[in-house]
């Protein structure tokens, strides 16, 4: 069992939930997806059947691209624990953490917010389950995704309504994956095919996303004509007009103003008695017609300078709710899909914290790893300094008890040099043997320094201290106090680094994580709270990690610094008292 499964298991003990049975034990993870058909989502009133819905995966709503098999071939969609849904993977890039997947929903009920299905993933040995030909219903007769590398646009439906000629280039950065780029010098042509025919009793639907950056002149975004009869969509300047010519004459819709420099969806629905034009999911113009049978030649983008993406033709009249749901599911401005929490095979929900952890990006883990190293170092300094200070305080107390009992006439009795010559006794091993209980006492080190220097200068500590010796001794004690303070403060800078650097390092991880989240959302075009929240929450985990280092380090630093200041003050007091004692003894000897 891997570490992630163990973690899920522990969290599951705390947050038990009732979940649907697992579809296949070979898949390690799944996530529930719900369709919101209410006013906050798709805003449809009637039930729509067999409609392809676009799922935009990115770091903001899916943090497990590293678990996917190559090109996402292990992705599966199920209505419940046993009913698979047809789907098509248009693009999955695990490095950029972007995925475009179409899934066919058997029905989306109008006004319902919880039509749910499941996304399964996490099986490196799974075969490719993508089925583009099963994604679309029978009337859908042409779908061009304009995939990168296509010379002639290829139809994604089972009909194979491929283009016969194309002067358009493939633009990688389209609205939904790649797009067709027109330079005004040629169009895309499709020969007449039975599945593309316009029937008076069934109707006909054309849809596309388009974008242009300059006013157009004499442009036909679409012509679907047999001879003079048929449908055309003209773009003049920034105005669109749908034009129908049939056996009963010609009809134009009212001009529709469109916005240049912006992706917009255009849908034209030809019904038996009228021609409806939808712009961005809403009805924009309508005109009465008498629809007649036409087996047209299709021409896309004649004289056009701009982009087309996701061109679709259906040999039926799609409903207004179909058009609206199609637009809203493909537009990042609407939250049609809501993503639940990820679940691991055999485990229940992971809990909110695990959702955050699962969405942390690589750069976030790098920052969290660095803060963890800082935390380990800070804890090591806290522990070692606490032990050292406690020992110094304890030994200082023991030394003072002995020192207070000392006869001023025998000042050197506590010094180790009475029995052995130790020219260099450091602060850790100062007293060995007879005075080993003073080995960590900073006061004893001052005392030892003074006695040692007196012996070197005068040969006997009980002799009168000369003025030269007095000045020299004063300097040596001050020097020893500084040395002891430096040793006590050694490595304290590591705590200051943790205090100051931890939050800034965490903030850096958060800022980078937020940047990556917004970049992924911008690239995928899925902008809603459900896609943004996991990535932002995961990015904030880096700041939490930085604060988790800084807060205990701050408390420990202030406590240890106070203790060190107390010890330093004690050393200065002792040095002054010891020098005063020597001064008093010198004065007494001078009187004698």
Number of helices, counting only DSSP H or I runs of 4 residues or more:
8
Number of strands: 23
Give the fraction of residues assigned to helices: 25-40%
- Overall domain count: 3
Task: Classify the beta-strand content into a percent band.
Answer: 25-35%
Mean pLDDT: 83
Task: Work out the radius of gyration.
Answer: 40 Å
Cα(first) to Cα(last) distance is 88 Å
Low-confidence residue ranges:
1-19, 417-436
Characterize the biggest β-sheet. 8 strands, antiparallel
Structure classification: alpha+beta
Global outline:
elongated
Notable traits:
single chain, 592 residues, alpha+beta, Jelly Rolls, 3 domains, eight-stranded antiparallel β-sheet, 8 helices, 23 strands, 25% strand, elongated, disordered N terminus
Characterization of the model:
This protein folds into three domains: 1-135 and 336-349, no CATH class; 140-315, Jelly Rolls (Sandwich); 360-592, no CATH class. The protein contains eight helices and 23 strands. The chain has helices at 3-14, 320-330, 351-358, 362-404, 442-458, 467-488, 492-524, 529-591, and strands spanning 29-35, 48-58, 76-78, 87-93, 98-108, 115-121, 140-144, 165-166, 169-171, 179-183, 188-190, 204-211, 216-226, 229-237, 239-246, 249-252, 256-257, 264-270, 274-279, 282-288, 297-302, 305-314, 337-344. The strands form four sheets. Strands 7, 9, 10, 12, 18, 19, 20 and 22 form an eight-stranded antiparallel beta sheet that branches. Helix 4 packs parallel to helix 8 (529-591). The N and C termini lie far apart (88 Å).
């Amino acid at each position: 069992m891997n570490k992630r499964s163990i973690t899920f298991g522990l969290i599951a003990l705390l947050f038990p939930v009732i979940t649907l049975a697992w579809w296949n034990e070979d898949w390690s993870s799944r996530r529930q997806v719900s369709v919101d058909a209410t006013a906050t989502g798709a805003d449809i009133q009637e039930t729509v059947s067999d409609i392809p819905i676009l799922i935009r995966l990115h770091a903001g709503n899916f943090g497990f691209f590293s678990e996917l098999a190559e090109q996402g071939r292990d992705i599966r969609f199920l209505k419940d624990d046993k009913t698979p849904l047809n789907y098509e993977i248009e693009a999955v890039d695990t490095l950029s953490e972007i995925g475009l997947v179409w899934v066919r929903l058997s029905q989306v009920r109008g006004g319902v917010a919880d039509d749910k299905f499941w996304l399964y993933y996490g099986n490196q040995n799974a075969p490719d389950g993508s089925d583009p030909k099963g994604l679309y219903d029978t009337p859908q007769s042409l779908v061009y995704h304009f995939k990168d590398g296509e010379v002639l646009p290829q139809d994604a439906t089972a009909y194979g309504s491929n283009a016969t000629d194309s002067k358009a280039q493939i633009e990688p950065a389209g609205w939904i994956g790649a797009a067709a780029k027109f330079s005004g010098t040629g169009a895309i042509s499709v020969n007449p095919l039975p599945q593309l025919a316009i029937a008076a009793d069934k109707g006909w639907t054309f849809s596309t996303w388009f974008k242009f950056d300059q006013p157009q002149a004499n442009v036909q975004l679409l012509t679907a004509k047999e001879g003079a009869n048929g449908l055309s969509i003209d773009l003049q300047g920034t105005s669109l007009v749908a034009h129908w010519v049939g056996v009963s004459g010609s009809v134009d819709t009212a001009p529709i103003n469109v916005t240049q420099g912006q992706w917009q969806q255009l849908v034209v629905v030809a019904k038996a008695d009228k021609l409806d034009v939808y712009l961005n999911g809403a009805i924009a113009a309508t005109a009465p017609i008498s629809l007649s049978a036409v087996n047209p030649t299709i021409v896309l983008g004649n004289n056009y300078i701009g982009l087309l993406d996701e061109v679709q033709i259906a040999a039926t009249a799609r409903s207004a709710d179909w058009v609206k749901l199609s637009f809203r599911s493909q537009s990042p401005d609407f939250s049609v899909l809501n993503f639940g929490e990820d679940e691991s095979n055999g485990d229940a929900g992971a809990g909110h914290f695990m959702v955050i952890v699962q969405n942390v990006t690589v750069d976030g883990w790098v920052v969290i790893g660095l803060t963890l190293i800082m935390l380990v170092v800070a804890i090591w300094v806290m522990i070692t300094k606490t032990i050292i200070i406690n020992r110094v305080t304890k030994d200082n107390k023991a030394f003072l008890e002995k020192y207070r009992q000392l006869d001023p006439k025998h000042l050197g009795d506590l010094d180790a040099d009475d029995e052995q010559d130790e020219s260099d006794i450091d602060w850790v091993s100062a007293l060995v043997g007879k005075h080993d209980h003073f080995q960590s006492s900073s006061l004893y080190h001052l005392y030892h320094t003074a006695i040692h220097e007196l012996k070197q200068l005068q040969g006997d500590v009980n002799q009168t201290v000369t003025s030269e010796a007095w000045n020299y001794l004063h300097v040596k004690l001050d020097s020893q106090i500084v040395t002891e303070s430096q040793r006590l403060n050694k490595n304290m800078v590591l705590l200051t680094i943790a205090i100051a650097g931890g939050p800034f390092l965490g903030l850096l991880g958060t800022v980078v994580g937020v940047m990556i989240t917004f970049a992924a959302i911008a690239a995928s075009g899925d902008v809603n709270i459900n896609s943004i929240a996991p990535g932002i929450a995961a990015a904030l985990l880096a700041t939490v990690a930085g604060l988790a280092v800084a807060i205990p380090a701050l408390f420990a630093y202030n406590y240890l610094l106070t203790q060190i200041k107390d010890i330093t003050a004690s050393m200065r007091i002792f040095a002054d008292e010891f020098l005063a004692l020597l001064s008093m003894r010198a004065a007494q000897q001078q009187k004698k």
